[in-house]
Amino acid sequence: MANKIILVTGSNGQLGSEMQVIAAAYPAYQFLFVTRQELPIDNEAAVKEYFSTHAIAVCVNCAAYTAVDKAETDIDIANAINGKAVGILAALCKQYHAVFIHISTDYVFDGTAAVPYKEDHPVSPVNAYGESKLLGELQAIQNNSASIIIRTSWVYSSFGNNFVKTMLRLMKDRESLNVVADQQGCPTYAADLAAAIMQIVEQTSTTLNKLQPSSTIFHYSNTGAINWYQFAVGIKEISNSTCLVNPIPSSQYPTPAKRPGYSVMDTSKIQQAFNLTIPAWRDSLEKCIKIMG
How far apart are CA 81 and CA 47, in angstroms? Predict the structure, then answer.
């Protein structure tokens, strides 16, 4: 029997790159990694053609428009990639009886909560990026009720551009740094999320999805809630930097897009549904920084 084919979109992003690393540990599957240039997922004709010529069993959509501030003016492009394209992929997965796993974000919430967000908490994005990602969730569920949507937050990796890499670079160049201390959330090491996705793939039948349509949204981040300042301090300590890190309020660091003040997510549902053990944020940060050398 031929190996099951897993299509991974957004293969040159942080999560897509980590999926490429972990693929070697799963010889029972054949992985197809595509960039947006190789498969423009917002082009329905191109995606239909791709699905008709490849026997895809699982599609993991790691592709996304992630420039949060730029999305405020690039609304049409953000909505096309984060919204319309998700609907196209979800519909084709349904048509071809493939499992559809889509990555969403904590930014679908407004950040006014005081306790970790559960999956059924009312959504209310505060920026264009969050709106575009919510559009994708709605399109996925509308076009394929068996879609598995994983909301994640504060993603970093040894690949791509992210907060950890930026801090490490700045800490080498500067004697002191100011970092926002009034936005709370949970970092996610993309390698951990990739491992979780493959555990989910292993447990999910392509023909009869055991999940009920009402239970298709899950939250995944590393454990432990912190603010950006605490994240930066952790990076400083692990990398043995002598750079002074100062906490500042968001008002001292204005950005085009508003950020949620609190975006801690409750991850108990995904842990129970797929028997996942999620590493603590600091343990994963140590691993990542060690890889970056």
Answer: 13
pLDDT at 10: 97
CB of 247 within 8 A of CB of 199? no
The 10 Å Cβ neighbour count of residue 228 is 23
Residue 215 has pLDDT above 70, yes or no: no
Query: Strand 56-61 relative to strand 99-105: parallel, antiparallel, unpaired?
Result: parallel
Whether residue 112 lies inside any domain: the answer is: yes
Q: CB of 232 within 8 A of CB of 167?
A: yes
Tell me, yes or no, whether 85 lies in a domain.
yes
Alpha-helix residue ranges (DSSP H) falling in 24-174: 44-53, 75-79, 85-95, 128-143, 163-173
Pairing of strands 176-180, 244-248: parallel
Cα 226 to chain centroid, rounded:
18
Query: Where residue 204 falls among pLDDT bands split at 50, 70, 90?
Result: confident
In a domain, 208, yes or no: yes
- CATH number for the domain spanning 73: value is 3.40.50.720
pLDDT for 210:
52
Which of 35, 257, 42 lies closest to 139 in space, CA to CA?
42
145-174: average pLDDT: 97
Q: Is 112 exposed, middle or buried (0-12, 13-18, 19+ CB in 10 A)?
A: exposed
CA-based nearest residue to 113, from 277, 270, 261: 261
> How far is residue 208 CA from its own chain's centroid?
25
Would you say residue 181 lies in a domain?
no
- The total domain count for the chain is 1
Please list the active-site residues.
129
